C-alpha cells in the first residue's frame, strides 16, 4: 500500500471532493481521481460514494480512515524525529477570523517563516468557525473557547475594542461625549443573522439597536469606517492600519475579547505542532501589544474638526 495514495485518500475524505482535495495537495482533480481509483483497485474495495454533494466515505472507507490517520501521525512523527529539535518545517494551514487574519497573522507569520526557512504557512481567512475534524485547517484561531468536541485548546491573548470613526465623519457632527450622542449617527456593524459567535455581537453592548451599514466581515466594516461611512466597534490593533480613524467614548464603551488556538487532539504529542503553537502564541501576543501601543490617546474634536 502506497503512503502517497493514502495521503490522497485522506485529502478526499476531509474535503468531500476531488477538486478541493487537489487544491490542498497541489495536484489536479483528475490525478486525484486516478489515485483514488488505484487505491480502491489495490484494496479491492469501494472507498467512496459519489453523491450530488461530492464524495462521501463508503463503509469500507470509514473503516480505513482511522488506520490512515494513524499512518499519517506516524509519518509526521518520523519527519519530526529526523528534522531535529530546533527548527519548524513543513506546511501548516492556519484558519482565523478575518480581523486576525488581516491585521495580525501576516506580520506574525512573516517572522515565523524568517526564523524557520523550512516552514510553509497558509492563512485561511473566513468569517465563520472552522471545522478541524474535516481538516479545513491544521490549527484554528477562534474568538471563544470551544465547549464541545475533542481538541487541544490554548488561550493566545486578550485584545481591546472601542467605538471609532474617521475624523472626516466626526468633523461633520456634534461632539460625541456620551452614548446618547450616538443617536442619529450612522452605525456600522455585523449582519445580525450572520454573527457566527456570540462574542462578535459588539453593538449589543453599546445600547445601539440597529446598524445602517453591515457586513459579515470585520475588515469590510473597518474599511467602511475608514471611508467616513459612520461609527462602529473596531479592534484597537487594526487602528494603526487606518489613518484618520480615532476612538471615541473610550471611558464608556470598552470591550475585551480573547483569541483561542484550537488544534486537533491527535496533535497533542506532536513536538512540531507544540513548538509552532507556542511560537504563534508568543508572536500574536507581542503583535497585539505592539499595535495597541500605537493607538493615540483620544482628544475631543470640535464640529469643525479642530482639537
TrEMBL record:
Source organism, top-level taxon: Bacteria
Annotated HTH lysR-type domain residues: 1-58
Residues annotated as transmembrane: none
Protein keywords: DNA-binding, Transcription, Transcription regulation
GO terms, molecular function: DNA binding; DNA-binding transcription factor activity
CDD domains named among the record's database cross-references: PBP2_LTTR_substrate
Transcription keyword on record: yes
Similarity section: Belongs to the LysR transcriptional regulatory family.
Protein name listed in UniProt: DNA-binding transcriptional LysR family regulator
Species per Swiss-Prot/TrEMBL record: Paracoccus sulfuroxidans
Amino acid at each position: 500500500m502506497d503512503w502517497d495514495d493514502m495521503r490522497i485518500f485522506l485529502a478526499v475524505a476531509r474535503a468531500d471532493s476531488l477538486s478541493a482535495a487537489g487544491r490542498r495537495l497541489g495536484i489536479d482533480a483528475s490525478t486525484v481521481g486516478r489515485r483514488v481509483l488505484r487505491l480502491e483497485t489495490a484494496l479491492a474495495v469501494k472507498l467512496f460514494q459519489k453523491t450530488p454533494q461530492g464524495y462521501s466515505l463508503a463503509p469500507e472507507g470509514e473503516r480505513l480512515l482511522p488506520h490512515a490517520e494513524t499512518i499519517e501521525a506516524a509519518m509526521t512523527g518520523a519527519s519530526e524525529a529526523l528534522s531535529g529539535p530546533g527548527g519548524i518545517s513543513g506546511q501548516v494551514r492556519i484558519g482565523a477570523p478575518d480581523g486576525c487574519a488581516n491585521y495580525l497573522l501576516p506580520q506574525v507569520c512573516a517572522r515565523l517563516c524568517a526564523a524557520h526557512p523550512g516552514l510553509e504557512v497558509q492563512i485561511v481567512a473566513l468569517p465563520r468557525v472552522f471545522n478541524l475534524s474535516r481538516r479545513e485547517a491544521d490549527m484554528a484561531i477562534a474568538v471563544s473557547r470551544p465547549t464541545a468536541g475533542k481538541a487541544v485548546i490554548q488561550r493566545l491573548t486578550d485584545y481591546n475594542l472601542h467605538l471609532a470613526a474617521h475624523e472626516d465623519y466626526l468633523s461633520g457632527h456634534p461632539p460625541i461625549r456620551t452614548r446618547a450622542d450616538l443617536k442619529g449617527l450612522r452605525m456600522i456593524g455585523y449582519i445580525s443573522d450572520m454573527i457566527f459567535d456570540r462574542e462578535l455581537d459588539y453593538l449589543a453592548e453599546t445600547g445601539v439597536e440597529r446598524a445602517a451599514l453591515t457586513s459579515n466581515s470585520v475588515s469590510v466594516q473597518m474599511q467602511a469606517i475608514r471611508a467616513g461611512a459612520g461609527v462602529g466597534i473596531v479592534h484597537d490593533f487594526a487602528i494603526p492600519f487606518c489613518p484618520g480613524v480615532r476612538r471615541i467614548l473610550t471611558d464608556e464603551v470598552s470591550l475585551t475579547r480573547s483569541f483561542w488556538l484550537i488544534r486537533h487532539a491527535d496533535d497533542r504529542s506532536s513536538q512540531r505542532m507544540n513548538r509552532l503553537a507556542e511560537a504563534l502564541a508568543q508572536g500574536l501576543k507581542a503583535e497585539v501589544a505592539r499595535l495597541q501601543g500605537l493607538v493615540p490617546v483620544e482628544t475631543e474634536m470640535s464640529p469643525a474638526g479642530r482639537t
